[in-house]
Amino acid sequence: MSLMRRGRDWWDWPFESIRNLPSIFDINFPSFTGLFSRPRVDIIESETEIIATAELPGVDKKDIEINVYDNILEIKGQTSVDEEKEDKNYYIRERYYGSFARRIELPAEVDPERTTAKFENGILKITMPKLHPSKPKKRRIDIE
Known about the structure:
Order of helices and strands: HEEEEEEE
Number of helices: 1
Family: Belongs to the small heat shock protein (HSP20) family.
CATH architecture of the domain at 50-82 and 93-132: Sandwich
Protein name: Heat shock protein Hsp20
Domain CS: 36-144
Structural class: mainly beta
Strand content: 25-35%
Largest sheet: 4 strands, antiparallel
Keywords: Stress response
Shape: elongated
Distance between the termini: 32 Å
Strand order of the largest sheet: 1-2-7-6
CATH topology of the domain at 50-82 and 93-132: Immunoglobulin-like
Pfam family, one: HSP20
Low-confidence stretches: 22-36
């Protein structure tokens, strides 16, 4: 089985190496993860549907918005601080609070009317039936 990354946003590639820097730099530099916080998403395509699974830890179900349009899956949401106290002296503060959005181009046309979503234990699963289910096509090509 081979993994193929589809629907990567144009701003992903320059920052992948930065996100993977050794944690030794965390000692002297502030965390910049909040600038690029977006949910991690896996997309699986079958003959009849596309399934997206997103990690949304600490997000409340009521703070998530899902849209499907023009072969685009859009996941938006908001995370908030439970208790914000100005007098706290944080030694390390790495958790991200604020809004996030993720737009992914889908590999096939889906039916927004039959799309469903489930959210459990911080995992969002979106099932999108294809409008035109694909049938595996195989054709032998003769060489001239």
